[in-house]
Amino acid sequence: MSTFWSIWISVIVLGTIFGCWWLLMATRKSQTTDTETDRTTGHSFDGIEEYDNPLPKWWFYLFIGTCVFSLGYLALYPGLGNFQGLLGWSSTNQWETEMQQADARYSELYARYGDTPVPALADNEDAMKMGQRLFANNCAVCHGSAGRGSLGFPNLTDNDWLYGGEPDNILTTLHEGRNGNMPAKGFMPNMNNTQVDQVVNYVLSFSDREKSAEAAEAGEAVFAQACAGCHGTDGKGNQGMGAPNLTDNIWLYGSTYDWIRETVVNGRQNQMPAQGGRLSDDQIQILAAYVYSLSN
């Protein structure tokens, strides 16, 4: 935060507290008595009169205590712009401390399964309960609570895998993450609109859905130059590169003419964040087994 905004916030916060303090004192100073009387303010409505009595002392002192507490809190904790407080507390430090405490408490539970092979672990009911919770906390926001994915996020419950669905592949994905990149117009950046239409129709022809047989036939040459380097000459993809199979009915970004055209023209970028460093090796082992169990 810049110095200006830090000062601006501090002035507003302290000004509010001292303003409340001044209002309390000024109001009390204007009172002519500290005891309850029958004197009224002179206001009357529908036979109801307003008494002119002082603020009860306990209430007054409670307001004063609130102001004092506020100043003490702001001296100890963040609240005045860039001033972090005398205790040096921060939400980040508290979170890290709580995570360290949780790791110390639960690491032994995770360690029970750290050396168990993924397929065997997938058959362990207790381990899968832990895996489901790890998935819900770390993966469900993208892949969904049931692992069925959504537009741009792979379905983990089928047998179609961008990088392979074997245990070692899943472990690598979780530890290191994945970076998917479909360049705009593939290896043919000068592709014109006619060629885009042709290659889209050619891709659709893999499942007999082309709009124009003539365009699809012409698109084979465009595909060979722009797309085959990753997806293969037969369009069946390459798991080593994360290039999807274009001949099945599973599509990460939609399978209609318009969706495929948008993919060809604009490309696609996607990232699966690495969990190594965020989760322990034992946790990743359990999580990999849970993901493996979704399609096995």
CATH class of the largest domain: Mainly Alpha
Number of E-state strands: 4
Uncertain spans: none
Coarse structural class:
mainly alpha
How many helix segments?
12
State the helicity in percent bands: 40-55%
H/E topology pattern = HEEHHHHHHEHHHHEH
Largest sheet: 2 strands, antiparallel
How many domains in all?
3
Question: What does it look like?
Answer:
The protein has 3 domains: 3-76, no CATH class; 98-177 and 273-294, Orthogonal Bundle (Cytochrome Bc1 Complex, Chain D, domain 2), CATH 1.10.760.10; 181-272, Cytochrome c-like domain (Cytochrome Bc1 Complex, Chain D, domain 2), CATH 1.10.760.10. The protein has 296 residues and is mostly helical. The longest helix is centred in the N-terminal third of the chain and has 27 residues, at 3-29. It is built from 12 helices and 4 strands, in the order αββααααααβααααβα. The model has no long low-confidence stretch (mean pLDDT 93). Helix 1 (3-29) runs antiparallel to helix 2 and helix 8 (193-205) crosses helix 9. Strand 1 and strand 2 (48-51) form a beta hairpin. The strands form 2 sheets. A two-stranded antiparallel sheet has the order 1-2. The protein has a two-stranded antiparallel ribbon with strand order 3-4. The protein is elongated and about 100 Å long.
